[in-house]
Write a structure and sequence with these properties.
A three-stranded mixed sheet has the order 1-2-3. A three-stranded mixed sheet has the order 6-7-8, with helices on one face. The chain is elongated. It folds into three domains: 66 residues; 133 residues, CBS-domain, CATH 3.10.580; 72 residues, Histidine-containing Protein, Chain: A (2-Layer Sandwich), CATH 3.30.1340. By secondary structure, the chain is of the alpha/beta class. The protein is built from twelve helices and eight strands.
Length: 280
Amino acid sequence: MNRSDIHLDGMLRHLGAAYYDSLHGRADEKDVNRAVAQVADRMGENTARTASVRAAGVSEHAPTEHHGKHHSRVSDLMTTSVISVDRITPYKEIASQLARHHVGGVPVLTLGRHVAGMVTEADLVAAAGHQHGGASSSWAGRHLGHKHEELTAERLMTSPAITAHPDASVSTVARTMTQHHVRRLPVVDRNGVLIGIISRRDLLKVFLRPDREIAGQTVEILDEVLPEGHEIQVGVKDGVVTLTGRDNKDELRLAARLAAEIDGVIDVIDVIDRTGTPPA
């Protein structure tokens, strides 16, 4: 490969990375168009810009999609039929709702279905413990002197509520749940109106995908982003993706990064084949 080809190959890699980042909200339309323009200038083909933009699925006049077909968002996994309570709902009614619907917590709504807070089974247990002289806590200090019959969702709830946006990624929501030690998040639109709820169990759904489906999508996205004729081979077993390539560490590293973002992938192993034989 001569110097000119190496330079063009580098720009194509940059274009592939910009396209991939645009699928996941890390780059916008201008970033992709700039990368396309650089390749078009290098090749001396004005038509390359339009063709490449279309190939990347980006309209020159429409906003860029914030996520790709290989990556689930909260809106793909959330439950839209949400059990909720009002601020004046009493303790016993909340407990009844949790038991009846087999859920661990409910959002507390104000007028207009805005989320004021969350009441969980842990909040109810803490209240019961306090009433029987066992509670510790900041909760006991906040609600000292109130009987179960007097406790309402407004007194029991954790507020302000920690919420999720429907376009948030699975990894973002998982980090939020871990950071705040919560098992579920109300999902709200840009106006703060409740549209769903997502739980830890919902997040695990992405890891139930068959290996064959993961492998197919991995091959598809590598063929879309990597230079034509790349020699990276894909294998998947129990959600672990193995990528085998020849000598080109940069290409293999990019492939590993792309594969790691695909739903259902638990881990990625990249192997350089130095035997000189085609990867199995």
